[in-house]
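For concreteness, we quote verbatim a single protein encoded this way:
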Amino acid sequence: MAQTNINIRMDTQLKKQFEDFCSNVGLTMSTAFNIFAKTSVRQQKIPFEITAITDTFYSESNMRFLFEGIRQLDAGKGIEHDIIEADD
């Protein structure tokens, strides 16, 4: 299969972080970008959600944490506390 080179611009720190991530999961940056490209073409979409929402309260990990706390409270475990309003 014929191959071609592409060039992209990226923040230096982001590149280093991405290289470290790829290394940690056993990939090269080239392989990671190829996986992204192939998945995008196959699914005909960006293979992850792109959003302008930056509120980490609604992050997947925080929502799991909150739902687990609710489940434990519903099971009679844990202690409920009153909300204390802070004075401005």
